[in-house]
Amino acid sequence: MSHIRLENLRKSFGPKRVLDGLSLEVRSGEIVFVIGKSGTGKSVLLKHIVGLMQPDAGEIYFEGEPLCGKAESEWYRIRRQCGMVFQHPALLDSLSVLENVAFGLRAHRLAKSESELREAVAAKLAAVNLGADIMDRFPPELSFAVQKRVSLARTLAIAPDVLLFDEPTTAQDPVATRAINELIHRLSRTLGVSSLVVSHDMHCALAIADRIVMLDGGKAVAQGSPQEMLESKHPLVAGFMKEAKERLFEVD
Amino acid sequence: MKWIRELATNWISDLGASAMFAWESLNIGVRRGVRFGSLIDQMYHVGVKSLPTTLIAGGFVGAILAIQLNVQLRDYGAQAVLGGLATSTTIRNIGPVLIAFMLSGKVGAYTAAELGSMRVTDQMDAVRCLGANPMEFIVVPRLLAVILSSFCLLVIGLMVGIAGGIVISQLVLSINAVEYVQKIPRYVSLWSVGTGMAKSLVFGIVIGVICCYRGYTASGGAAGVGRAVRQAAVEVLVLIIVLDFTLSSLSEFLHAFLRVGQL
Ligand SMILES: Nc1ncnc2c1ncn2[C@@H]1O[C@H](COP(=O)(O)OP(=O)(O)O)[C@@H](O)[C@H]1O
Ligand SMILES: [Mg+2]
C-alpha cells in the first residue's frame, strides 16, 4: 500500500509558480530523498502534505485517502501520523527543551505521568545524539544545529508513521549527521516508518535513500535508485552527483 | 481618484480581517479559557517592562499640559482653575492618546515583531503540526496580556500625569499644590474619569488586536516581519486618533443626552 501520493500538484504565490504539476510517491517504509536547487519549492512541497498550504490544483493521498479540502479538525489526526521536521528549528523560545520536546506528547495526551514524559523526552534526545542534561536549557541558549536536533526529537516524540524532513542534516557536524542518517534508516527498517527527506547532502542520499527525486521548475524531472541517479545523463542530476562522486572516490 | 478608492478599500478590508481575528480570539478565549500562568508571564513581559517608559511619558504629558494651559489662563487671570483644566485635559484627551501612542511603539511593536518572527520561522506551523492551535496557545494569551497591560499602563500613566501637573505647578509655576488639587473635583467629574477609562480600554484593544493580527499574518522572512510591524504601527496610530475623536464626540453626546453632573 502506498503511504503518500501526490498527483499533479500546482501552487502559485501571486504570479510566481512554485509547484507546476508535481507528482510523487512515497511507499510504505520507503526512504525517498528530494533534491533540487534552493527555492524550487521543496519546503513548499512538504508543507502541502501536512495541510499547512493548500494546492491550487492536484490531489494528495495519504493511505489512499484524499487530503485536499479537509477541515482543520481532520488534519489533527493526519498530522499525528505524519510528522514534520521544519527547515527552521521552529522551537518555542519561551519553553525549555523538555517542554518543547514534550509539546506533542502533551497535546495528544500520549504520556500518563510526568516521569514517563521525562523518560520519553530523554530517549528522543538520545536518538538525535543529545544528552538529557540539555532538557532544562532554553532554545536561545543553543546553537542552530542543536536546536534543529531538538526539533527533530520533538517530531519523533509523537511517533508518526511517516516523517517529513526538511534539510535535517544541514549545518550539523559529521557525528550528528551520521546519527541522524542512521536514525532515519533505522526507523524505516525496524519500524517501517516512511520518510520523505529534503536534503542537499548527496552523500546521505546515496547512502540511505531507496529512491532519489530531482525537483526542478516545480516538477519531478528525474527519479530513480541511488545507483540509477549516479549514472543519470540528466544534466542537473549529473551536476548534483558530480560532487558526491568525487568525494566517494576520495574516500575510496 | 482611483488611488483613494483603492486605499479606502484596502483599509476597510484590513479592518474587517482584524475584526474577524478579534472575534476568533474571543471565541477561543471563551470556549477554551486562557492559561493563567501563561497570561501572567506575558503580562510581565509586555506590561511590567513598559512601566518606566509609561511613568516618564505620563508625568511629562501632565507637566506639559499644565505649563501650556497656564500660559493661556494667565492672560485671562484665571490661573486659579489651572488644576481643574489641566487634569481634565490630561485624563480625557491628550493623556490617553499620547500614552497610547507610546505604548503602541513599546508594547505593540514588540508583540507584532515577536508574533511575526514566530510566524516566519515556522513556529506557528510547528505548533499546528504537533496537535495544538497556535491561536489558542500563542496568540490569545498575548492578545489578552497586551489589552490588560495597555489598559493598566494607561490608567497608571494618567494618574502619574495628574501628579506631573501638580508637581510642575508647585515647582515651576508657583501655584500652590493644595489650591491646584482643590480645583480638580470641580472640573473633573466622574464622567470625565469614565471617558478616560473607556478610551484607555478601547486603545488597549486596538493596540492588542492590530499588532497581534499583523504579527500573526506576517509572511516573507525578516523583511516580512518588518513590514508587519510598520503596518501595525501606522494602523494603530491612525485608529487611535480617529477613535479619540469618535469617543470624545460620543462622550459629549451621551453626556448632554443623559445630563449627568457638570462638565
Ligand atoms: N508563504 C509564501 N508566500 C509567498 N511565497 C512563498 C511562500 N513560501 C514559499 N514561497 C516561495 O516559494 C518558493 C519556494 O520556496 P521553498 O519551498 O522554501 O524553496 P526550497 O526549495 O529552497 O525549500 C520561493 O521562491 C519562495 O519565495
Ligand atoms: Mg527549503
Looking at how many chains there are and whether they match, the oligomeric state comes to heterodimer
CATH architecture call of chain A: 3-Layer(aba) Sandwich
**Which structural category do the helix and sheet elements of chain B fall into?**
mainly alpha
| Structural class by helix and strand composition of chain A | alpha/beta
The distinct bound ligands, ions and cofactors come out as:
adenosine-5'-diphosphate, magnesium ion
Order of helices and strands of chain B: HHHHHHHHH
Describe it for me?
The complex is a heterodimer of chains A (252) and B (263). Chain A has 252 residues and is of the alpha/beta class. Chain A has nine helices and ten strands. Chain A has helices at 42-49, 72-81, 97-107, 114-127, 144-157, 174-191, 202-208, 226-230, 235-251, and strands spanning 2-13, 16-27, 31-35, 57-62, 65-66, 82-85, 162-166, 194-198, 211-216, 219-224. In chain A, the strands form two sheets. Chain A has a six-stranded mixed sheet, with helices on both faces. A four-stranded antiparallel sheet of chain A has the order 2-1-4-5, covered by helices on one side. In chain A, helix 3 packs parallel to helix 5. The longest helix of chain A is centred in the last third of the chain and has 18 residues, at 174-191. The radius of gyration of chain A is 18 Å and the shape is globular. The termini of chain A are far apart. The mean pLDDT of chain A is 91. Chain B is mainly alpha-helical and 263 residues long. Chain B has one domain. Helix content of chain B is 86%, strand content 0%. In chain B, helix 1 (2-32) crosses helix 6 (134-171). The chains are: A alpha/beta (252), B mainly alpha (263). Chains A and B meet through helix 2, helix 3 and helix 5 of A and helix 5 of B. The complex binds adenosine-5'-diphosphate and magnesium ion (MG).
